[in-house]
Design a protein that fits this description.
Elements (H helix, E strand, L loop, with lengths): L2 H4 L7 H4 L5 H8 L6 H9 L4 H10 L5 H21 L4 H12 L8 E5 L5 H8 L4 E6 L2 H10 L4 E4 L14 E6 L13 H6 L1 E12 L5 H16 L3 E14 L12 E11 L9
Parallel strand pairs: 1-2, 1-4, 2-3, 4-5
Antiparallel strand pairs: 5-7, 6-7
Helix pairs in contact: 3-7, 5-6, 6-9, 7-8
């Protein structure tokens, strides 16, 4: 039996409905008062600054990896400000999903934050009790910002997909990749490397976008995830569609004219899963 059955209410759609989650997760989806009616129309009417749109378009453009890394280096100083303007919610949603799935107190868990950027995911994980955080990123500028947070015990340069993760096999209780699984970024073929460094019974939390320019990648990624599940490498804990993932930078990328793009949070657990301790 898959973990959708073992964890009632945690299948696809559980976070969005908030049925099986603490109030924190349900509130984080829409804000304390929800987003509807005039409020939603008002937020859709807000325009992103041209500079934000240009920086996002640049890093998601068609340049090669070295060029993208240089762009991320240059973006690092403004990154947190820009993603706040985008209302980018993936770090919060991913951390909340992982924390809810995690069966033990998280303070002693060793976690690897892949493509850690400036440390947005680490901030959310720290709020939820995770303390032993390691991070890797291909951008020196992003790593410098992450280091300044003081939240990571270890930070290393690594471009996943071009090189293996700088960690031994079965080293981490959990691994996160938030925001980097997308077209022109981390290839879906790199997912087994995430499994390699995860302990049996450990958790992997991944995200991707569902906007039109990323749909081809999303199909490839989900095929890879399902193939690993069929092979018995891991079991799915949840796969959650989120409508308002972040604000769209163009009408073409907007989901049904909402002004936002959608995304997905996935949580898997590596097999074999240790039996539950009695008592």
């Amino acid at each position: 039996m898959g973990l959708w059955g073992a964890y009632p209410g945690r299948g696809r759609g559980a976070i969005e409905r908030g049925r099986a989650y603490p109030g924190e997760v349900a509130r984080s989806q829409w804000g304390a008062g929800g987003v509807s009616g005039a409020g939603a129309r008002s937020r859709r009417g807000m325009r992103l600054a041209a500079g934000v749109r240009e920086r996002v378009a640049a890093v998601h453009g068609g340049g090669g990896l070295p060029q993208r890394l240089r762009l991320y280096d240059g973006w690092a100083a403004r990154y947190d400000q820009d993603v706040a303007a985008l209302e980018y919610r993936a770090p919060e949603l991913a951390a909340a999903s992982l924390a809810f799935a995690f069966p033990a107190p998280p303070a002693g868990a060793r976690l690897l934050d892949v493509a850690c950027g400036t440390g947005l995911v680490a901030r959310e994980l720290h709020r939820r009790g995770f303390r032993c955080l390691h991070g890797v990123d291909g951008s020196a500028g992003m790593l410098e910002r992450a280091r300044s947070t003081g939240l990571y015990r270890r930070l290393r340069p690594c471009v996943l997909g071009r090189e293996p993760l700088p960690a031994p096999a079965e080293h981490y209780d959990a691994v996160t990749v938030v925001g980097a699984l997308g077209e022109g970024q981390v290839p879906s073929a790199a997912v087994p490397e995430l499994l390699r460094v995860t302990k049996p019974g450990g958790f992997l939390c991944l995200t991707t976008r569902s906007n039109p320019s990323n749909l081809r990648y999303k199909v490839e990624l989900e095929a890879a995830l399902e193939r690993l599940e069929r092979q018995g490498a891991w079991q799915k804990v949840l796969a959650q569609d989120v409508e308002r993932w972040e604000r769209a930078t163009s009408e073409e990328e907007s989901t049904q004219g909402t002004g936002y793009i959608s995304g997905v949070v996935y949580v898997y657990r590596k097999c074999p899963i240790p039996p539950l301790e009695e008592g």
